[in-house]
Design goal:
heterodimer, A: alpha+beta, OB fold (Dihydrolipoamide Acetyltransferase, E2P), Phenylalanyl-tRNA Synthetase, Chain B, domain 3, seven-stranded mixed sheet, B: 344 residues, alpha+beta, binds zinc ion, magnesium (chain A), cytoplasm (chain A), tRNA binding (chain A), PheRS_beta_core (chain A), metal-binding (chain A)
C-alpha cells in the first residue's frame, strides 16, 4: 500500500511529523514502512504560465516560438513539444530553476532564437513515467482547470508529497485504505479521524425504478447495491485527484473511472462503474457462471468461465467478473452519459478462485480476497456519488437498488487488565487500557478491570482475546515491555545422545582432514538412485518424487549423498581445486511404497568424497594421491574411535569400480561401503579417480555408546610374534586375518598386516603376507611355551584353511 | 727409577698435547700405557727394588699412569666434540622451506552457526529436537493454525509430494510434534534446527532449500516480556554485548501477538547507513506468543499454559554476520568458500 502523506493529511492531522519520524512510529506500532518515496521536490522558479502566442520556429520544423505570460512578465520560450498551443496553461521553468536530475535552466539560443526558460512535461518535473496519464505522456503538461498564472506549481502538482510504502502483513488488510491508515496513524498520534463528505443532491427519479437486482448466489454475494448517476460529463478528473492517484501508483484515465479508483483507495471498497446505456438490460443478475461461458473483459481478452466463478450479468450475458474485472461491452468510455455504479460485498473465496484461474490480480480483487468492511460498502457508493456530482456534473437518482444479507454486527471481545498484564509481563492500569482503546477508536463497556470491546467491522482481524492483547501491547509500545527471564522450573538443556554422536562423527571427519559440505536434498531422478548403499537399496521400492517440481534438477529426494558430493568435486575441479576431501552428514529418504502414501523413512548417513592428491610436499618428493586405502583409513579411524569392530569384504555396487570396492559390516550387518567410483561414472562428472565412502549413521546411533569404559592399563608385558606366509594371491588378507584370530586363542590382543609382497622371489600366482601378533594376559606374564603353542595352532589353521605356508 | 717415571710422564703429556687427531692420540696411548710400553717395563723391573722402595715406586707409577690416562681422555673429548660439530654443520637444512602439511578439515559455515545457536540455547535450558523433512500437511500447516483454504499456504509456495505430504516449509512442525509428544501436561522448552524447502527459484537471495532454527517455550505463566528477555540474551551473546534489540509487531498465523526482532546495526550503531537501509536496525528473526489455537490443537489448555516461539534463518544470519553476498554459496560448496570459515 502506497500512502501519500498529503492525501493522508485530509483525514488526520499529522502535526509536525516528518515523513521519517512518522514512518518510524508506524513501523514500531505494527505496520512496517518499507520505504519512503518523494514524488519530486519543492521546485523554485517553476510557475504556471499562459501561452499567449505560439508560432513555428523560422528555421526548425519541430520547434515553436511561444510567448508565455508568467504573471510578472512575458517570456519568449522555444518549445519542442508537439502539443503546445496558444491559450494553454502550462508549467514554466524559468531561468535559474533547477529541475530534478540537477537540470539547470539557463538562457539559451535555439537555432538563432532566444529562449528564456522551458515549458515542462510531468516527467521533467520528476514524476515517474508510469504514473503520467496517457494523454500527457508525449508532451508538455497542460492544466485542464483554472489555475493562477505565475503561481508556484509545487502545490498544484503535489510535487512536495512523500509516499510511505507500507508492507502489510496478511492480517492488516484494514490498512489497504487511506481511512484505515488514518485510524492507525490517529491511534499512534492520539488524533481524531476526519471522515470524507458523502452528501449529494438527488433528482426525483428512483434508482429502483431504473434497475432491479437479483442475487442467485447469496453466500458469494451477501450485498449488492446499484446506484444510478445520469448526465455525466466524461472529462479528466480534477488535478488533485489525479495527483493522489499517481502518488498511489494508479494511472488516471477519466473522471468516472478515477473516482471509483479514488474511493477504492480511500475506503478500501472496490466499486465498478458500468455504462448503463450499454449494459444491455435494466436488470442485474448475480450468479455463478455456467461451464464454458465466455466473456470479454475490459482488457479485451476473452475469458472462458466455469461454475467456480461469480459473474454480474444483465440477465443474459456476463458484464463483469465479480470483484475482479469489468466487461469490455459495458465499459465507461467518452460517450458514457448514465453510470450504473456497483457497490458490493463479494466473498473472498470466489474472488480468489477467479484471480487464480485467470491470472488477474487487481486492486479490487486483492481487497475482496482479504475481506472488506461491511459498514463501508454502501458508504463508498455514497462517497463516489458525491464526487460524481461534483466532478462529473452527474444527476444522482434517489436511493439504491439492492439485495442485502450482509452481517454488519460488531464482534465483542472481553479483556481484563489482569490477564493482559499476566500475558505481557506488564503493570498496565485500567485507565491506561481505556486510553489505548480510545486511541484505537474502539467502543467498549468497562466494568472496573473488565472491558467488553466492540470491535469495529473495519478490523476483521480481531476476534479473540489474544488479538486484543496485541492491540493493547502495540499501542502501549513493545519498547516498554521489560526484559525478563522465564520464572518456570529449571530445565537442563543438553544434546540427545544421537545429536552428541553426530557432532562427534563430524569432529572425527574434520580431524581426519575432511571439510564439511551441505548439498541439496532434491536432485534429479537419475542421481536420486545412483550409488545407493546396499543396506538402502534393499529397502527402497521407488524414490520419492515431487508432485510438481520446478525443474528436473531438483525433482526427486536423494537416496545417497554421494551423487551431489561428486557434483561438488566436479565443480571444484573445474575451478582448479582438484585436491578435495569432503564429507556430508545428511538425510536420505527411503520409501517402501510404489505410490507414496506415507512419509518416507528419513535416514542419516555420513558420506565422503576424495579427489586428487591426499598429500603433497613437493621438495621432499612426497606425492600421495588419494586411493582406496586412504578412504578406508578414514572409515577405520572413525569406527575404531567409536570402539566398533568392523570387517570389510569385496563388494560389487552399481557405479563403483568392481575391483576396488568394499562393503563393511558390524556384527554381520552391512553398514556402508567404500571404494573407487567407476571410471565411466567418474568421467560423467569429469573426474578421474574419485574415492568415496558411505556409512549408515542410524546404525551408529543405535549401537554406539560414547561413554568410555575404564580398562586397566596392562601391568604385564605383551609378547610379540611375526609370521610371514606364502599364499595364493586371490585370498584376501581379511580372510587370513579372521582365521588367525580364531586360531590364536584367548591371549591374542592385537593382530595386523605389516607387509604384502608379490614378485620375483615368489612363484607366480602367490603372494606373501606378513602379520604381527601380540599376546597379553592382564593378570600375569605369559610363558614362551604358551605363545609357541598358539603360534603353531595359527600355522596349522592357515595351512588347512588357505593352503598357506611359512615363507622361507 | 723414580726420575725415569717422572720423565716418562712429562714426555707423554707433551706428546698428548701435540697429537692432532684421534689416531695420533691412540698411538700415544699404546706407546706409553700399552703392554709393551715403558711404564709397564718400569713396573716389571720392580722386583729388583728393596722392600722399602717398592711401594713408593709402585704408587708413583700408578699416579703417572692415571695422569696420562686423564690427559688422553680430555684430549679425546676435544676431538669428539670437534667431529660432532663438523657433522652437525653438514646436517644443516633450509629451515625456511615449508613444512609437511597436516590437513585439517572443518565444519560448514551453516553448521558452525547452528552449533553456536544450539549451544547458546542449551545454556538457557532448551533441548534440541529434530523432525522429518517430508512432513504431513497437518503438522506443517493445520496444527499451526493454517487451515486448508488459508491464503498463506498456496500450493505454489510449497513442494508437495502428495496432497497430504510436502517438503516442510519451516521447522515449526517439530514444535507441534514435540508438544504432542509431551501430551499437554509438561512444559516444553526446545529449539529445532533443520533444513526447510520453499518453491523459490535459486538466486542471490532465494534458495529452494535453506536452514531454520525455531524455538518454543510453553509453560504456565510465560509472558511476552520473557520472550523479549530470552531473545535479548541470545542477541547479545551471539552478536555482541553492545548490540541492542527492538521488537516490532508483525503477523504469523501461529503466534498472537507476533513480533519481528531487529538488532541495532553494527556498522552505524543505530544512526542509519546503507547496510541497514538508513533505519539503524537489521531484521533478524520473527516470533511471538503461541496462538491459543496452536496450543489447543497440541493438547495444551491456553487458559493454563502460555508460551512463546521464534524462528530464524542461519543463512541470513551468516550473510549479515560475515557479509556473504549470495545465498547460493552455502550450497555450491566451493572449497575456497568453505575454507574461509574453518578458522574458529
Ligand atoms: Zn547502519
Amino acid at each position: 500500500m502506497l500512502v501519500s502523506l498529503n492525501w493522508l493529511k485530509q483525514y488526520v492531522d499529522l502535526g509536525s511529523e516528518t515523513p521519517e519520524s512518522l514512518a518510524d512510529k508506524i513501523t514500531k506500532t505494527g505496520i512496517e514502512v518499507e520505504g519512503i518515496d518523494y514524488v519530486s521536490e519543492r521546485l523554485d522558479h517553476v510557475v504556471v504560465g499562459y501561452v499567449e502566442s505560439c508560432e513555428k520556429h523560422p528555421d526548425a520544423d519541430k520547434l515553436n516560438v511561444t510567448k508565455v505570460n508568467v504573471g510578472d512578465e512575458v517570456l519568449q520560450i522555444v518549445c519542442g513539444a508537439p502539443n503546445v498551443e496558444t491559450g494553454q496553461h502550462v508549467v514554466v521553468a524559468k531561468v535559474g530553476a533547477v529541475l530534478p536530475g540537477n537540470f539547470k535552466i539557463k538562457q539559451a539560443k535555439l537555432r538563432g532564437v532566444e529562449s528564456n526558460g522551458m515549458i515542462c512535461s510531468l516527467q521533467e518535473l520528476g514524476i515517474q513515467e508510469q504514473y503520467v496519464p496517457k494523454d500527457l505522456a508525449d508532451g508538455i503538461f497542460v492544466f485542464s482547470e483554472s489555475v493562477q498564472i505565475g503561481r508556484d506549481v509545487t502545490d498544484y502538482l503535489n510535487l512536495d508529497d512523500a509516499i510511505l510504502e507500507l508492507g502489510l502483513t496478511p492480517n492488516r488488510s484494514d490498512a489497504l485504505s487511506m481511512l484505515g491508515v488514518a485510524y492507525e496513524v490517529a491511534a499512534i498520534l492520539n488524533e481524531e479521524v476526519i471522515l470524507p463528505d458523502e452528501s449529494y443532491t438527488t433528482t426525483d427519479e428512483q434508482a429502483t425504478d431504473l434497475v432491479s437486482v437479483k442475487v442467485e448466489a447469496t453466500d458469494d454475494n451477501p450485498y449488492y447495491g446499484a446506484f444510478v448517476a445520469k448526465n455525466v460529463t466524461i472529462k479528466p478528473a480534477p488535478l488533485w485527484m489525479r495527483n493522489y492517484l499517481m502518488a498511489a501508483g494508479i494511472r488516471p484515465i477519466n473522471n468516472v473511472v478515477d473516482i471509483t479508483n479514488y474511493v477504492l483507495l480511500e475506503y478500501g471498497q472496490p466499486l465498478h462503474a458500468f455504462d448503463f446505456d450499454r449494459f444491455g438490460s435494466n436488470q442485474i443478475v448475480i450468479r455463478r457462471a455456467v461451464a464454458n461461458e465466455t466473456f470479454v473483459t475490459l482488457d479485451e481478452e476473452t475469458r472462458t468461465l466455469n461454475t467456480e466463478h461469480l459473474v454480474i450479468t444483465n440477465g443474459q450475458t456476463p458484464q463483469a467478473l465479480a470483484g475482479v474485472m469489468g466487461g469490455f461491452e459495458s465499459e465507461v468510455n467518452n460517450e458514457t452519459s448514465t453510470v450504473l455504479l456497483e457497490a458490493a460485498y463479494f466473498d473472498g473465496k470466489v474472488v480468489r478462485q477467479a484471480v487464480k484461474d485467470h491470472g488477474l490480480r487487481s486492486e479490487s480483487s486483492t481487497r475482496f480476497e482479504k475481506g472488506v468492511d461491511p459498514n463501508r460498502v454502501k458508504r463508498a457508493g455514497h462517497r463516489a456519488l458525491h464526487l460524481l456530482e461534483k466532478y462529473a456534473d452527474a444527476k444522482i437518482c434517489v436511493g439504491v437498488s439492492e439485495i442485502d444479507a450482509l452481517d454488519y454486527s460488531e464482534k465483542d471481545v472481553v479483556i481484563t487488565t489482569e490477564r493482559i498484564n499476566d500475558r505481557l509481563g506488564t503493570t498496565i492500569t485500567d485507565y491506561e487500557i481505556a486510553v489505548i482503546l480510545d486511541k484505537l477508536q474502539f467502543t467498549y463497556d468497562q466494568d472496573q478491570s473488565t472491558f467488553t470491546v466492540h470491535v469495529p467491522t473495519r478490523r476483521q482481524d480481531i476476534t479473540i482475546f489474544e488479538d486484543m492483547l496485541e492491540e493493547v501491547a502495540r499501542i502501549y509500545g513493545y519498547d516498554y515491555l521489560d526484559y525478563t527471564l522465564p520464572e518456570g522450573g529449571q530445565f537442563a538443556g543438553k544434546l540427545s545422545e544421537r545429536q552428541a554422536l553426530k557432532r562427534f562423527v563430524k569432529q572425527v571427519m574434520e580431524g581426519a582432514g575432511l571439510s564439511e559440505a551441505i548439498t541439496y536434498s532434491l536432485t534429479t531422478t537419475e542421481r536420486a538412485t545412483m550409488l545407493m548403499a546396499p543396506d538402502i537399496k534393499k529397502q527402497v521400492i521407488s524414490p520419492v518424487r515431487l508432485a510438481m517440481p520446478m525443474s528436473e534438477e531438483h525433482s526427486t529426494l536423494r537416496l545417497s549423498l554421494l551423487p551431489e558430493l561428486l557434483a561438488v568435486a566436479s565443480y571444484n575441479q573445474a575451478r582448479k581445486e582438484k585436491d578435495l576431501a569432503l564429507y556430508e552428514v545428511g538425510t536420505v529418504f527411503v520409501s517402501d511404497e510404489k505410490e507414496i502414501t506415507k512419509q518416507p523413512k528419513e535416514l542419516n548417513r555420513l558420506a565422503g568424497v576424495l579427489n586428487g592428491q591426499w598429500l603433497t610436499h613437493p621438495f621432499q618428493q612426497e606425492h600421495k594421491a588419494v586411493d582406496f586405502y586412504v578412504a578406508k583409513g578414514i572409515v577405520e579411524t572413525l569406527v575404531s574411535r567409536l570402539g566398533m569392530d568392523v570387517t570389510f569384504a569385496k563388494a560389487e555396487i552399481d557405479g563403483m569400480h568392481p575391483g576396488r570396492t568394499a562393503e563393511f559390516y558390524h556384527e554381520g550387518q552391512s553398514i556402508g561401503f567404500i571404494g573407487q567410483v567407476h571410471p565411466t561414472l567418474a568421467k560423467s562428472y569429469d573426474l578421474k579417480a574419485a574415492y568415496v565412502f558411505d556409512l549408515d549413521l542410524e546404525y551408529l546411533y543405535e549401537h554406539v555408546d560414547l561413554e568410555p569404559n575404564f580398562n586397566q592399563i596392562p601391568r604385564f608385558p605383551s609378547m610379540s610374534r611375526d609370521i610371514a606366509l606364502v599364499i595364493d594371491e586371490m585370498v584376501p588378507s581379511g580372510d587370513v586375518l579372521a582365521t588367525i584370530k580364531q586360531a590364536a586363542g584367548e591371549h591374542l590382543f592385537s593382530l595386523h598386516v605389516f607387509d604384502v609382497y608379490q614378485g620375483e622371489h615368489l612363484p607366480a600366482g602367490k603372494k606373501s603376507l606378513a602379520f604381527n601378533l601380540r599376546y597379553l594376559d592382564p593378570t600375569r606374564t605369559l610363558t614362551d611355551d604358551e605363545v609357541e603353542t598358539s603360534y603353531e595352532a595359527v600355522l596349522a589353521a592357515v595351512k588347512s584353511t588357505h593352503g598357506a605356508v611359512l615363507r622361507a | 727409577m723414580q726420575e725415569k717415571l717422572q720423565a716418562l710422564k712429562e714426555e707423554a703429556l707433551v706428546k698428548i698435547t701435540e697429537a692432532d687427531d684421534l689416531k695420533a692420540l691412540e698411538a700415544v696411548r699404546v706407546g706409553y700405557l700399552g703392554k709393551k710400553g715403558p711404564i709397564t717395563e718400569v713396573l716389571r723391573g720392580m722386583g729388583k727394588l728393596s722392600a722399602e722402595e717398592r711401594p713408593v715406586v709402585g704408587e708413583l707409577a700408578n699416579t703417572v699412569r692415571a695422569a696420562i690416562t686423564e690427559a688422553l681422555e680430555v684430549k679425546k673429548q676435544v676431538f669428539e666434540t670437534e667431529a660432532l660439530n663438523e657433522q652437525l654443520k653438514k646436517e644443516a637444512i633450509d629451515v625456511t622451506l615449508p613444512g609437511r602439511p597436516v590437513t585439517l578439515g572443518g565444519p560448514h559455515l551453516l553448521t558452525s552457526i547452528v552449533t553456536e545457536i544450539e549451544d547458546l540455547f542449551i545454556g538457557m535450558g532448551f533441548e534440541v529436537k529434530e523432525g522429518p523433512e517430508v512432513e504431513t500437511d497437518y503438522y506443517n500447516f493445520e496444527a499451526l493454525n493454517l487451515p486448508k483454504n488459508h491464503p498463506a499456504r498456496d500450493m505454489q509456495d510449497s513442494f508437495y509430494v502428495t496432497e497430504e505430504l510436502l517438503m516442510r516449509t519451516h521447522t515449526s512442525p517439530v514444535q507441534a510434534r514435540t508438544m504432542g509428544e509431551y501430551k499437554g501436561n509438561k512444559p516444553v522448552k526446545m529449539i529445532c534446527p533443520g533444513k526447510v524447502y520453499r518453491r523459490d527459484t535459486d538466486d542471490a537471495t532465494h534458495s529452494h532449500q535453506f536452514t531454520q532454527v525455531e524455538g518454543l517455550y510453553v509453560d504456565k505463566n510465560v509472558r511476552m516480556s520473557d520472550l523479549k528477555g530470552v531473545l535479548n540474551q541470545f542477541a547479545k551473546q551471539f552478536f555482541g554485548e553492545e548490540r541492542e534489540i527492538r521488537l516490532r509487531p508483525s503477523f504469523f498465523p501461529f503466534t498472537e501477538p507476533s513480533v519481528e526482532m531487529d538488532i541495532s546495526c553494527k556498522v552505524c550503531h543505530g544512526k542509519g547507513c546503507s547496510v541497514c537501509k538508513q533505519t539503524g536496525w537489521i531484521e533478524i528473526l520473527g516470533g511471538g506468543m503461541v496462538h491459543p489455537d496452536v496450543l489447543k490443537m497440541a493438547g495444551y489448555d491456553p487458559e493454563i499454559y502460555s508460551g512463546f516461539a521464534f524462528g530464524m534463518g542461519p543463512e541470513r544470519i551468516a550473510m549479515l554476520k560475515y557479509g556473504v553476498d549470495d545465498i547460493r554459496h552455502f550450497y555450491t560448496n566451493d572449497q575456497r568458500f568453505l575454507a574461509q570459515y574453518h578458522k574458529a
